[in-house]
Fold these 2 entries.
Entry 1:
Amino acid sequence: MSNYIIKRMGLALLTLLGVSILIFTIINLAPGGPEVVMVGEDMDPALAERMRIRLGLHEPVYLRYFRWVTASLQGDFGYSFRTGHPVLPVVLHNLQRTLILTIGALVLSVVVSIVVGVVSAVKQYSLFDQVASLVAFMGISIANFWLGLMLMLVFGFHLGWLPISGSGTVGMESGTLAYYMDRARHLVLPVFALGFMRLAVLVRYARSGMLEVLQQDYVRTARAKGLTERVVIYKHALRNAMISVVTVIGLSIRFLVGGSVVIEEVFAYSGVGRLTASAVYDRDFPIVMAVCLMISVVVLAGNLLTDLAYALVDPRIRFD
Amino acid sequence: MLRGKWFMAILAVMAAVLLLAAACGPAAEDVEEPEEPEEPEEPDDPDDPEDPDDDRYGGELVMGTYGDANYFMPPLTGDGYTYHTKYLIFDSLVRMDHNLEPQPCLAEDWEISDDELTFTFHLRDDVTWHDGEHFTADDVWLTYQFIANPFGFSAKTDYLAPLVGFSDMSAEVDELHDKLDADEIDEDEWTERVLAAYEEWKAEDAIEVVDDYTIQFHLEYPSGSFLTISTEVGVVPEHILGDVDLTTTDLSETEYARDPVGTGPFEFIEWERGDHWILDAFDDHWDGRPYLDRVIFRVIPDETTRISELARGNIDKAYSVPFAELDYLEQQDNVQILSGPSLGWDMINFQLERHFFDDLRVRKAVSHAFDKVSAVDAIYEGRRPVAYGPFNPAFDWAHNPDVTKYEYDPDRAVELLEEAGFEHDGDGWYKDGESMDFALRVGTGSTSIEMCELFQYDLGEIDVDVTIEPLEEAAWLDAIFSADFDMMYFGWTGLADPDGYIYTVHHSSAIGGRNVMKYRNDRVDDLFDKARMTPDIDERGTYYYEIQEILAEEIPVIYMSYYVNYHAVAEGLEGLVPNPTKHASIFWSLKDAYWAE
């Protein structure tokens, strides 16, 4: 087991290296560098040249990449081109916000989808199943930014039950109960908008996984033994049905992090998704690099955890 | 069968609910009224801002912006919101009011010598920094040195061009930059030589501290716009930044750039990157405490979200409201729309060295084919005047209303194409085997793209096929910057003096810079140069009149509309006055803003 984990970690490091080379190359190939955005409509070539020198862009790409790698290995991710902030604290701060959002969306989608999926499978073709399937199809079809806007219009704008946007009320004293309540209220709509689509996908997987398992011989055996339906479903069938669901949950992490770009934009929630989007527009290379690296770490960690979770739900799987 | 019915019924209900939610939109009566405070008492003396009983004091203002702040370092640069906060956190020597008249600020008075080569500013002696220190001429000196010092990498260096010896120094430094970039010299040699050039210039004392409250600027040639420049620079404190070594430290990476101390009416409290920043009233401002206690800037990138927050009363001003939403907001009880001229203009640029656009007949044909008056009216909802030249009507001394207008006339357009030697071969126009079809590039804003679509449609009517190429911001700026387009739709924002921004778009010396259409006309160059050297405003006006006649005749670009600023702000907020310069906007008057009721 520990050998396996070490091997996976080694591979993950290689992947990160590959990702960093790829991203560095891509952002440097993109038309219009950071100096162009900074100079903006001043449009003075001498000024652009000055900015290139200020930002160190007059040096060849490979040299800059090499500098970046050596510095970042020592924990120095540099300063944001646009705002002059040290990169690491900014990225970690925003990453933490996004993790709260994505974990919220993940928990919501996993819990609800398993319950709904299992009930749908057990009561196949019932009214509940029909409605659940319909909602699931809608969830898959609806763009999450549109759902976000609709939720905002209904619950934020018309009804006024929840805040329309933001990460929290500006200027509140942090650390108090009211502060955390306020943060939580700001999370409700974005979490739902982000989680709904994954929920819909997961419901389909949970339902079909469960249906498949329910037709297996061992389920029939369990029933034949005279076990109650409850024990058959929750003890024998559910655990086996979970294997396929676990795979999809693992895959969900990257979709959720990706989806957060749009959701954070719509809800003015200052997470890592919005940070990435604006950094890409501004060609803020240090931020883009750090963010992509952090997101890669999160996704790779998610994949590793998924694989480890297989062992938990399926005793047949051993990592040697 | 039953299953199918249920399915359809549920589907129908769901669809109806969603459609309803989408369609009904925010309705006026659903918007919560802002809380009604008690009846206002008449202020004892409304003209005395120091009166403690004046109930205009108090309250906070929340701004919904679309992007984040930049570093708070006025000498360095300041696109977007940093310009705006300049008027709040910082003060400049002189400030421009909404009539574009210079008004005293940190300088209570100034003199221009008879030969117009020396500007003397007499500074106020009662100004304190937010940290309690006293303001003197040394602060001003340092601020301008940050701009002048090549290691400051200021984007405002051009402002100092008229100073004695400055242009020579910049030219030398720019040459060294090029050499460094081309690897002809190494970093150490570059540093040494740039530093030497700067030290040499500094020794000439073009910026001279006469005493604690007097500072002088020595010019190489008379400049009609130098005073304007002094309105553009917020002053930073010597006692905090005096020890910064620019050869080793980037100004934007200093603590100060994220936690600034100024002399302005509001002091900086906090900035959470990408989320918000907060300013509080500064009690000891030399011009009296502002009425508002606090100003909060919240970053809300999505347009719909921003408008919803405003209509709901959660924010008090929404930045950059699209024209299509102004009518809706105007109908809201809790929103008012303030408007005023803005100095910029938008246009469709020809690239005169590409395609067939060096031929005036082709440019005329395109102008006649495009119904720009209808297009401007449609896209800007009749809220912007149609432009026939770059000089905004707000410059009443320079704007020439009586120039050639190539009216919408597709038949004339076809004639002109034929005159220019084009032949129609059934599916389009050709000359020497080359097609008249071309690409129109544009940034990704939705109104810009709609404008381009109208252009595309009109040109299509005379069988010229226009391809629209929308570009994301950095790529778009890069395409403008490198003049990489056949035609390009964009606009310029204006400065307080037309020389500062119209010159560099049309003068042939700016080819390779802002003159991206590569326009070259000796007479126009000559007139611009004369106007630049002429302090007398009426005489300058006659030069600008003639420039406009030539430009309208030769149409190096199709001028589209003059900008007008629209500010959607909460009802009850009084005292805000829009300023036509982009940088001042309504912020220059925020100090005088207060909540009525």
Note: Residues 1-8, 13-49 of chain B have pLDDT under 50 and may be disordered.
Entry 2:
Amino acid sequence: MVPCIQASDVTLTFRPKDREAVTAINGLTLEVARGEFVSIVGPSGCGKSTFLNVLLGLLKPDKGEIQLNGKRISGPGEERAMVFQEFGLLPWRTVLANVELGLELKGVAADTRRKRARGLIELVGLTAFENHYPHELSGGMKQRVGLARALVTEPEVLLMDEPFAALDAQTRDLMQTELLQIWDRAKKTVIFVTHSIEEAAYLSDRVVIMSARPGKVKEVLRIGLPRPREYEMRLSPGFNEIKSRIWSTLKEELVTRIGGDGAQR
Amino acid sequence: MALRDRYYEHQRPILGTVSVIGFFLLWEWLLTSVVTVDPFFLTQPSKVAAAAKELFLGGAIWQDLAVSSKAFLWGFSAAVIVGIPTGVFMGWRRRAEYTLDPFFTALYASPLVALAPLLIIIFGVGLTGKVVLVFLLAVFPFIFNAFAGVKSTDRLLVNVVRSFGGKEKDIYWKVILPSILPYMVAGARIAIGRGIVGIIVGEFYAASEGIGFAISRFGDTYRLPEMFAAILVLMILAVVFTEGLRKLENVLAPWKIGQEAR
Amino acid sequence: MRALANFYREREPAILGGGFILSLILAWQSVPSLVSLPQGISLFFTTPVEVIKAFHQLVVQNQIQSHFYVSAVEFIVGLALAILVGLPLGLVMGRSKILDAMLDPFVTAFNATPRLIFLPLLILWFGIGIWSKITIVFVGAVFPLLINTYEGVKNVDRVLVNVVRSFGANEWQTMKTVVLPNSVPYIVVGLRLAIGRALLGVVVGEFFAASRGLGYMIANAATNYKVDVVFVGVTIFMGLSLILTYFVKKLESRLSRWRPETAKNF
């Protein structure tokens, strides 16, 4: 069976005008099955977000390629949608208009898109707020809008770039549980970038640990916890063991990175 | 490849220089080789350059610049001396703000230049009329920027300094002054533009010397190369002043205030 | 007594602010009855009541109306041209690095320079008819509009651009859904500045090159020592700028309903 996502030897170098070129990812290879929930963790600046942007089709790799269902990704497409860390809501649009955005850009008729957007707003529990502007919402509500907006075009693959990083701890726990419920119902393939080891372990089928810049896959860890995941699982010794395994792999990279930075100066 | 990288590194200044030089070359070429234009209507860069050389070497322009600068400096200094304390006072005392703000806002929003003819018949065509006009136009940016600067002073920072045992004096020097300074420079930048307007209008209206008078006299006598040269001199001066102050603003407030107060 | 104190406390800014302006006007009015002005000063002196009388006189004679009409046409046509040129140019400069780099030296130079210095040149080119004033209004107003539009485009949040591009938006759709809405508050600020510059252009343009218009009326009255008429003109210009500023501010808050309350004041 063809994997849903197949990244082979993806390499990308940024060449900013006034600074030295930076190779963000170097030879990244990864396969993701259909319906799988995969998290990516790694040191800051290891190219996690860059990889997501390549997946999204906003950046083109210098070398290598990513295939989606056996077809090469060459630009944005409706099979993929992103949930952004800073929410990325258009501040001048109401919740409803924000969720409609993807359909509007595709040229879907107004009444159809309104209906579909309302369905997703209901899914994330914001029906009472559909005419509010983003600045009137809490962080958790904003990210619910971000999620609804990503889901509205019915993508196969959901890309999530540290979506809960800007939320407080309780809201974050709540959103994780909700995300898992939605994922369970909608059967999407999810690529989830995060800084939180706990979050990665709790949500994912597999956790990808990336090396320090230039980023590539250092280790992939299958999380054996049963589904559906329960919050209580986080308190089990097994969960702690998973966390410490991720942490020990990651720690080597953090040390490399700090050492590397020191040498540059 | 290396050359191309070099180009991309400096794309902005390269393109800017090319387009400015290109503009003058095109202008020159169009007027000398392509079309013939009435010399009383338009002139070309080479003649402007010759006129500028003549103006500077002949010394005629220096006298005009000196006359204008003198009026400008008097009016501008008065605006600083009156404007900053007034603004600080308004920012400091709530009642002063309530009392003065509507009146000053109304004056600042109005084209006070409309008073120019009156000021000139009252104070005459000499120095005083221009000084008053420059003062009237330049004082409000200082008032409102000093006001905004004081208002923007972070109360938290005042408390931080107090909590470390700082005295009133420390609060002034370590919190308020650094907060106001970038606003003052921004105010000065706006005030310079308005002050030049005052000088120009005053000298257009009634004067016997000064750079504004020179420009308008060259216009009246159809001496286009000289007029363009004088305009160019003023443009260069304005750019040097405003860009210099913008740089200074960035030096004084690297964290950037981001927005101009009014 | 308590009620009065409360009434005052609730309306303190309005009472102090309005009271100050009112007492200035009253003080001005009462100067001649308090001191006897020497000949040299009384020639240049007028009182608010005389200004109002002069205004009434000018309205009856239909003079204000015809001057106002000319000034209004110059203002409106010049400002409209500035909007038609400034907005598209600002948008294009904000989106195209090459055009930005090429035009920036000119924009910076012209923006730093008070454009009034071009007045003698414009008079030479267009004469003292309406077009010299329209062009001086235009060159005054176009740069604040252009620069603020440009700033609005430049300050677009990269994330938002990525959001719409991730949905497959093309350049035009990006412009329509993100760049333009983001620029609106900047454009309105630009409009507010442009209105000020445009009025300045009308006033000064008419001082030196006109036979009609409110600026001409002021200059002409000053030459003939009709100080009350000068103040009529000045007051009209003040009133106009206040009214226009008020409407732009209204527009500003209407167009920025989506912004948090704290940001609205800027």
Note: Chain A touches chain B through two residues (CB under 8 Å).
